[in-house]
Amino acid sequence: MTSTAITEVEITQPIPIPQAPKPPKKLKPARKQVKPGDVVKEETVQTGKEYNIWYNKWAGGDREDSYSNKTKSQTRCSIKRDSGLTRANTTGMQYICLFFSRGCCPYGWECEYRHTLPDSTDTMPDSSKDCFARDKFADYRDDMGGVGSFNRQNRTLYVGRIKETGNGQETEEVVARHFREWGTIERIRVLQYRSVAFVTYVSEFHAQFAKEAMACQSLDNDEILNVRWATEDPNPVQKVAEKRRLEDMGQEAIKAKMDPRIVDAMRAVRALEDGETVQQGEEYDDDGDDEQQQMQQHEGEDEDDEQPDTKRRRLENGSADSALPQPIQSSGLLSADTLEGLKYFAEIRKRHGGVPVPAQQQRRAPPPPASTGLGLADYGSDDED
């Protein structure tokens, strides 16, 4: 026999006491990013013959001239330094300030729009507008710029004119460092030797904010970025994943709007349809048998408790009902209709004393009921009676 020794270990370190979570840090009033008049709007250099007010550029010129004449943005937003409370936090306005995203809002805490990143969990009041309250359109512009389309939920940005340094991994790290400030990034794809990157955000609102915040900005070098909406990904795997994601989002949104009691009722109905109905039916039958036995017992008790006169009248009515002719039930080879026909002919022969009935009386006599069973001839009987 071996004995197991149990030793006690003395705990010298104090047990940590769980502390209550710290309350979220309150936002301070938003600061004024620029002073009025600091940002000077530069005129577009003429590179063509006609000026297109929709695209804000000259038409008919050289394409390379329009790219080379892109000027770098004078301001840039800093979420950590510029975010704060505005009048929109008291009035209930949910849209974001467009000039705040570009880093050039001169109003600060007096602004009527929010000076924060859009919340990915919330939804805007109008789905046909972006997070800056600008109206979307049915189709994208030819250059994939502008507000965007309300027919497609686009979360991917096209970032052009990137100066690559080293391999594609280093370029991807540079792009991620500059674009993660505007929201959670799902994936980044860099086309090496083409100076192009695709940045996909988890939320569409973050993609809208990043498009305005990084327009005409630069990364680690002095390049001037060309940020546009990306076209639809032709990869079939990504198409299936995007479709599944939209379906899940729709289901979650519907579930959030529904009453929990309705959800529980639907689950109960679905559980019954999956096979639990049979078990409940069996239990119901057992309960029905028990109830039937209890009813019979109560009827028996009621019969014993009846008055003699009431019981006598009920017996007389029962005997009168039993005296009525009962329908003939077939228990052999002949059917009930056949027995009724034979009985009818036997009554006729009995009345006429065995004399054959004239043909005229036979015509007047009602026809016997049709036989649906097997006749005697089917069994080879020679007796006509």
TrEMBL record:
Annotated spans, Disordered: 1-39, 272-334, 353-385
Recorded GO MF terms: pre-mRNA binding; U6 snRNA binding; zinc ion binding
The UniProt record lists the keyword Transcription: no
GO biological process, alphabetically ordered: mRNA processing; RNA splicing
Assigned keywords, A-Z: Cell cycle, Metal-binding, mRNA processing, mRNA splicing, Nucleus, RNA-binding, Spliceosome, Zinc, Zinc-finger
SUPFAM superfamilies reported for this sequence: RNA-binding domain, RBD (SSF54928)
Domain RRM, residue spans: 155-232
Chain intervals annotated as zinc finger (C3H1-type): 96-118
Domain (C3H1-type) ranges: 96-118
Pfam families membership: RRM_1, Torus
GO cellular component annotations of the record: Prp19 complex; U2-type catalytic step 1 spliceosome; U2-type catalytic step 2 spliceosome
Sequence ranges of Low complexity compositional bias: 355-364
Biased composition (Acidic residues): 282-292
Subcellular localization: Nucleus
Bias-annotated ranges (Basic residues): 23-34
Family: Belongs to the RRM CWC2 family.
Classification via PANTHER family: PRE-MRNA-SPLICING FACTOR CWC2, PRE-MRNA-SPLICING FACTOR RBM22
Descriptive protein name: Pre-mRNA-splicing factor CWC2
